[in-house]
Amino acid sequence: MAQALQTPPCISVQEYLRLELSADTKHEYIDGEIHAMAGASDAHVKVTGNAYALLKNHLRGSGCSTYIADMKLRIGQDEAFFYPDVMVCCDPSDQLPEQDLVKNSPKLIIEVLSPSTEAHDRGKKFMLYRKLPSLEEYLLIDPRTYYVELFRRESDIQWSLTATDGPESLLTLNSVGLACCLADLYEDVRMA
Fold first, then answer.
1. What angle do CA 151, 58, 107 make, to 5 degrees?
2. Which of 2, 18, 82, 89 is such that its CA lies 20 to 30 A from the CA of 177?
3. Domain assignment of residue 88, yes or no
4. Domain assignment of residue 192, yes or no
């Protein structure tokens, strides 16, 4: 995550949403501070696109919607706003016209890691994501190697972790009923 913009130390949610409507770049919002989002690597974009395509095709006709990087997610009443790399929302309330720019109830969130955001994706962001009662799974994908970490909600306070590596390894997303090989997520990605 980039440094906070030159703004007052704390801005309101209404001001953030107003600024975001006309901004040239996307910004995330946490407790009154906004942070500009940086660009992504070739591998990051390809992995994000592959995850979106797999989920979009799998969920066609299910009533669930798959979103990629440009859709805002609200945490709590006004605590934080993020742009997950990929998320799946199945709650009909997220499809209402007043939810056109912001979603509230994802069941799956995917973040593709980058050196500048990895600590944040694993730390503060995951801490806030866990507050979403709808969230069943949180998937972290490392675009530099065949490696993913899947956090699955076991109870209101407990999450389990499954790490998977290798191109032929199977990844199972129970939240959406999808199983795929890691090679499917990494299609067309150049490995170093």
1. 35
2. 82
3. yes
4. no
Q: Which 3-state string (H, E, C) describes 104-155? A: CCEEEEEEECCCCCHHHHHCHHHHHHCCCCCCCEEEEEECCCCEEEEEEECC
- C-alpha pair distances (Å), 137 with each of 78, 97, 101, 161, 192: 22, 26, 22, 10, 29
The per-residue DSSP string of 62-81 comes to SS-EEEETTSEEEETTTTEE
pLDDT-based confidence at residue 2 (cuts at 50, 70, 90): very low
**Does residue 90 form part of some domain?**
yes
Q: Structural domain tally of the chain?
A: 2
* Backbone φ and ψ of 148, nearest 5°: -135, 155
User: Has residue 174 been placed in a domain?
Assistant: yes
Q: What is the pLDDT of residues 17-39, one digit of tens each?
A: 888 888 888 888 998 888 888 77
Q: pLDDT exceeding 90 applies to what percent of the chain?
A: 65
Q: How many CA atoms lie within 13 A of 65 on its CB side?
A: 15
**Same-domain pairing of 124 and 160:** yes
Cβ atoms of 66 and 86 closer than 8 Å? yes
| pLDDT tier for residue 117 given thresholds of 50, 70 and 90 | confident
Give me the pLDDT at residue 9, please.
63
- Say whether both 140 and 84 belong to one domain: yes
